[in-house]
Amino acid sequence: MKYKIGHEIQFTQSFWLPVEGGKKLKVLKGDKAVVVKKIDDNSGEILYMTGEASGKSQVINIQVDDEIDGDYIARQIMEEL
Fold first, then answer.
1. How many domains are contained in the chain?
2. DSSP string covering 54-75, please?
């Protein structure tokens, strides 16, 4: 599956996210992240939006389309207003 920039991802399994200083943050099933950047054909950067990892970013192995998910971004802007 190809993801668009701005696409929201909801995790289906819990896992540990290693961060600076040798610490680990728990990402729980149901936590959400947003695709923020395409790195190359097989990787992209995500930003964790909920849970213990909220505000952290990570490069993961996903295919990211060059297009932007305009509907999601418009919803986010409307929620902020």
1. 1
2. TT-EEEES-EEEEEE-HHHHHH
Domain that includes residue 16, residue range: 2-80
Cα–Cα dist 6/73, whole Å: 6
Sheet holding 32-40, edge to edge: 8-10, 32-40, 43-48, 57-60
Residue 45 confidence (pLDDT): 96
Write the pLDDT tens digit of every residue in 3-21.
999 889 999 999 999 988 8
Q: What is the CATH number of the domain that holds 29?
A: 2.30.30
